[in-house]
Design a protein that fits this description.
14% strand; six-stranded mixed β-barrel; alpha+beta; 954 residues; 51% helix
Length: 954
């Protein structure tokens, strides 16, 4: 086969009949020999891989952050609803008994299980989303709204008062309880309002306290005293899930309790519940106990997300007093009402979540800002490395659009797949979260990564450049545009800091408030860049007169670094400030929890009788003192019901402003008897109201006392007579302290225990660095079976159980780690930008006699000024930012939201954590020195000839 000749202009075979093309037809351009993108990627594969890894990690962080926030907020919502008492979260729909104008048979039919079950099914079907009920824990039935009194003499009567019983004909008893004796109650025959004897079951706890057994008959009377109903116990049952809503929505059905009557002195009576057969409910119509129908709907938190909270709160409010209640009345009757405490639980959750979210936003802004700066630095590094190539293209007629498009294609080929992989990893790492915020985060990273290099190159090569002008920090002269931009950023930073200090991050702040640490770091970076040449000039003058050339050359090189060094400095300052801020948040939270746990217990361990109402066994103190880990034990006697003696409530004119009021005179005092020596040591060790032991010295029958501010204002400074179960004493207040270990959360009056009539201690306060909880409880159990043991470490652990807290803490820990990592990346990118120039200089100086040791010294000293600037500036800016923002940041919600009852700590604010300031800064300096030493070693290994090849830019 004959080959056709080739046209040398186009590289294609000539047409038959000659090489002339047809007139009027344009010539098609030939295909490029090698595509631009593939050529560039093959030229620098290592840089492409490194850039892809950077984009992948950054995209993963920006995508996983909103998903992590969604995850812990959703888990926190489910935990808050599920962990609240069932009585506070159950939706209780109730309707009174049918009116007397209705025929008796119709009234009885309305109380039977069939009618109640039909209403229950309709109510479940009509609940609006996202309100969902847990059918397994929900219940319905008829109960007595007014308890009936047991008249049998064999029932327990603490003060001679008969117990009261609540009767409930509740559904599905067999599914929620196991029979421990007898059988479940049944409705024999057809029960009506005239039925006077019914069957019932009692729980094991009720049977034990009320002395019930199978076959017992309880006679119950109404308000008039006549026997209203007789209840025969046919079975003793054990609840299968006693903490579930079925049993705990009305705890008296599960466990009896003592009720305090409003009398003087206080009197007690038992209150218990009995479970009737559902078919026996009509019998309650014949009593005066005001029976009511009820449908208790336990909330189902399965699948509930944080985004459902506003809608859930809105629908619950509507069910209580809105259109939702009207729908319920159409089903259950016009007099039905729905009551629940779920909106209170949701409101508390929303308040805690809002406060924590505003604090977390500060960390998110810091990480996002430093990541954006590092991506911009990566683009600037590539633009600087390829400045000659791009200048040549521009001088040969390349358009800005063409150059920018090719560079965009280069970066997009790497950045888009890397960002997609980062998004995929984020989706795999965190489940049950929204997709859209993660997509927006990864897309933002991809957009910035793609645009950094083209934008930087287009800005640098707007005009063709014949040669590179000198561009260093010493010769740089800021223009008007830069000055205006810096003043604008300064105004934004000042406004954000002022706003944060005035209203706090937990107030109605905005994104500007959350960005305050970033803006402060930005202004500091700009100021430091402007001030940076001054110390270099001052230091260069004396070094120029020295004999050695290393010092002068290093300062000269440091001063001639590129003016774009503001970008690495900005990245380092933001990263170090973010790490310092996050470390300070974690340190403040840890201190607040330690303090809250201490105030909840009063020492490292607290051993007492139940309610601290009776004296401890005689061997209790010795048993606790001999336990492993216990260093010191302080015995105290606490009387919570002490009060002013009657003969002094109206005669002492020098008492405080409240002493003359009769009602206030009867207010109880917390009287604490202590051994002055050991107790003063304990207070000094724990920093809880320390005082000299001599303050409690007895003076002629009058006991000197240390009081809290409230008690001191009430009693005054004159001697007062105090009555308590420990005996009557006369006290004079000689010192005032805000807190004391024995009663750290209440007002108190502290005296010498030896001056009391009854000196037996009720409480032991133990200290020790390594207390063994199991051994301490075993020792307390051996001394007395009713002793209660509380440990500070356990109270501390209880403060960390909230998903909102743990999630926010993980984010701040990640912020510290990510800030440090991005600081390292920024430093490495900064050093890599000038690495070829430094290697060439080192090779030239070696041809002039520079030794390897002097080369390492030169590169190390050259990198030292910028490293010290970044480290010192990071410490200063981080410290200043924390000091500025501390008054406006309240960490109380983040610190103690898991157990607010154990957390009397107020005003939990930021404090400076020196480790978070010093460690990252020291790491920056150490890394700069290590990189300089490594570059000197590598340059010496390659040799001077390789570095000095003409035209070789490798």
């Amino acid at each position: 086969m004959t080959r056709r000749p080739v046209d040398v202009r186009t590289g294609r075979p000539e047409r038959p009949g000659g090489t002339e093309r047809r007139p009027g037809r344009p010539e098609r351009p030939g295909r490029a020999v090698a595509p631009w993108v593939r050529t560039r990627l093959r030229t620098a594969p290592g840089a492409a891989v490194a850039f892809g890894v950077l984009v992948l990690i950054t995209a993963f962080l920006m995508a996983v952050l909103p998903r992590a926030v969604d995850a812990y907020e959703s888990e926190g919502l489910r935990r808050d609803i599920g962990g609240a008492p069932p009585g506070a979260t159950v939706l209780g729909l109730s309707a009174p008994q049918p009116g007397l104008e209705i025929p008796r048979s119709a009234r009885e039919e309305a109380m039977r299980p069939a009618a109640l079950s039909a209403v229950h099914r309709k109510v479940l079907a009509s609940l609006p989303a996202p309100v969902r009920a847990d059918a397994a824990e929900s219940a319905y039935g008829v109960r007595t709204s007014e308890a009936l009194t047991g008249t049998d003499t064999w029932l327990p009567r603490p003060d001679g008062i008969g117990p009261r019983f609540t009767l409930a004909a509740q559904s599905e008893l067999a599914a929620h309880a196991g029979v421990r004796g007898g059988r479940l109650p049944a409705a024999g025959g057809r029960v009506t309002a005239e039925t006077k004897e019914v069957e019932a079951a009692a729980t094991t706890a009720t049977a034990r306290v009320m002395r019930l057994r199978v076959g017992s008959v309880i006679r119950l009377s109404g308000p008039t005293g006549s026997t209203a109903l007789s209840v025969r116990i046919t079975g003793i049952v054990e609840p299968r899930r006693p903490q579930g809503s079925y049993w705990s929505a009305e705890p008296v059905l599960r466990t009896p309790g003592l009720a305090v009557l409003p009398s003087a002195p206080p009197q007690y009576r038992w209150e218990a519940g009995l479970l009737l057969a559902p078919g026996a409910a009509p019998a309650l119509l014949g009593t005066q106990a005001m029976p009511e129908r009820y449908w208790r709907l336990a909330p189902d938190t399965t699948g509930l997300a944080a985004q459902d909270t506003p809608a859930l709160l809105r629908e619950v409010t509507s069910l209580e007093s809105g259109p939702g209640l009207l729908r319920m009345r159409e089903i259950a009757g016009g007099t039905a009402v729905l009551s629940t405490g779920l909106e209170t639980v949701l409101g508390s959750h929303l308040a805690a979540r809002a406060a924590i979210t505003r604090i977390v936003t500060v960390a998110a802004f810091g990480i996002g800002a430093v990541a954006a700066v590092v991506l911009a630095m990566a683009g600037a590094l590539v633009a600087a490395r390829r400045a000659g190539e791009l200048a040549l293209l521009r001088s040969r007629g390349g358009s800005l659009r063409g150059i920018g498009g090719r560079l965009l294609a280069e970066t997009a080929v790497i950045a888009l797949p890397a960002a997609g992989a980062g998004l995929l990893l984020a989706l795999l790492a965190v489940d049950e979260a929204r997709l859209l915020p993660a997509v927006w985060g990864a897309s933002g990273v991809a957009l910035l990564a793609c645009a950094a290099l083209p934008v930087r190159a287009v800005l640098l090569h707007r005009r063709p450049r014949a040669h590179d002008d000198r561009d260093d920090l010493v010769r740089a002269r800021p223009g008007r545009r830069r000055t205006v931009a810096e003043l604008t950023l300064l105004a934004l930073a000042v406004a954000s800091v002022v706003a944060l200090r005035r209203r706090g991050a937990s107030g109605s702040g905005d994104l500007l408030v959350s960005a305050a640490p970033v803006l402060v770091s930005l202004i500091a970076a700009l100021v430091l860049v402007r001030l940076y040449p001054l110390p270099l000039r001052w230091a260069a003058r004396p070094t120029a007169r020295l004999r050695g050339a290393i010092g002068f050359l290093s300062l000269a090189r440091a001063g001639r670094s590129s003016a774009t060094g503001a970008l690495p400095l900005l990245a380092l300052l933001i990263a170090l400030t973010t790490a310092a801020f996050g470390g300070s948040v974690l340190a403040g939270v840890a201190d607040a929890r330690d303090r809250a746990a201490l105030l909840a217990v009063g020492a490292d361990a607290r051993v007492s009788t139940e309610g601290e109402a009776t004296a401890l066994p005689a061997n209790a103190e010795r048993a606790v003192r001999n336990t492993a880990g216990v260093e010191e034990v302080t015995a105290v006697r606490i009387e919570w019901t002490a009060e002013l003696a009657p003969d002094t409530t109206r005669t002492n004119a020098n008492a405080g402003t409240d002493a003359g009021a009769g009602a206030d005179a009867r207010k109880p005092l917390t009287l604490i008897g202590v051994e002055p020596g050991s107790y003063s040591r304990l207070a000094r060790q724990l920093d809880l109201g320390a005082f000299p032991a001599g303050v409690l010295k007895d003076t002629g029958g009058v006991l000197n006392a240390v009081a809290s501010p409230g008690v001191a204002a009430r009693l005054g400074t004159a001697p007062r007579r105090i009555a308590s179960p420990a005996g009557e004493i006369t006290v004079r207040i000689t010192a005032v302290r805000p807190r004391t270990p024995a009663a750290p959360r209440s007002e108190f009056l502290l005296v010498d225990r030896a001056g009391l009539e009854h000196t037996g201690p009720t409480t032991l306060l133990a200290t020790g660095e390594a207390l063994d909880a199991r051994a301490l409880r075993a020792a307390a159990l051996g001394a007395g079976p009713e002793l209660d043991v509380r440990l500070r470490s356990e109270e501390r652990a209880a403060l960390t159980g909230s998903p909102l807290q743990s999630g926010a803490e993980r984010i701040y820990a990640a912020a510290v780690a990510a800030g440090a990592a991005y600081a390292v990346i920024a430093l490495v990118l900064s050093l890599l930008q000038s690495a070829p120039e430094r290697s060439t200089l080192l090779a030239r100086l070696r041809t002039m006699g520079l030794t390897r040791r002097q080369g390492r010294q030169l590169l190390g000293l050259e990198a030292l000024p910028q490293a010290l600037l970044a480290a010192g500036g990071g410490i200063l800016v981080g410290w200043t930012t924390i000091r500025l923002l501390a008054p406006g940041i309240d960490l109380a919600r983040l610190a103690v939201a898991a157990a607010p009852a154990l957390a009397p700590v107020q005003d939990v604010s930021l404090r400076t954590d020196m480790w978070s300031l010093a460690l990252p800064a020291a790491g920056v300096v150490a890394l700069a020195g290590a990189v300089a030493a490594g570059q000197a070693w590598w340059a010496g290994r390659r040799g001077s000839i390789t570095e000095l090849r003409a035209g070789d830019t490798r």
